[in-house]
Amino acid sequence: MNLDLNREQFITLLESVHLAGHVRGAPELDELEEILLKCGLAAGLDGMIMDDNGKLTLNNLILRALHEEIDAYDDENFETTLADELASRDLSFVKTPEEIAALSDAEYDAIIESQARRYEAEFAEHGVDHLTLAHPLPLA
Question: Of 21, 36, 95, 134, which cross-links 29 as Cys (Cβ 3.0–4.6 Å)?
Fold first, then answer.
């Protein structure tokens, strides 16, 4: 199989595979990245690719930029997931499981969305600094 990519498309593909490998942690993505790195080196992208003791990798500037994107994504995903989970928990405080099951998908989504937006606004203003547990876990 051959792909006909210009330089920018190839770089986008290589960076995308690196990001996907971080998210999925799948060995086949590491293998694919290695293949792409070899192709990139052969195609003259040696300024972007470095040899780290026999292992090809993207250069440090590119890796740093990609990992800054990963960190920003992780922060966003954490806060969104936390807001959704807290909203779901809050709903369980005011409705029984039967009442929750009786909600239509649209009704359920509207309630969760509304409450999650409140948490997201709190996180935007204060991060998670104002969150506390009524029964904190003891330090191990």
Answer: 21
User: Domain for residue 51, yes or no?
Assistant: yes
The Cα 129–Cα 27 span in angstroms is: 37
Cβ-contact 94, 87 below 8 angstroms = no
Tell me if 106 is assigned to some domain.
yes
What does the block give as tokens for 32? 């694919």
pLDDT digits (tens, 9 = 90+) for 66-83: 999 999 999 889 999 999
With a pLDDT cut of 70, the percent of the chain lying above it is: 97
- Inter-residue contact 34 to 12 (CB < 8 Å): no
One domain for residues 122 and 79: yes
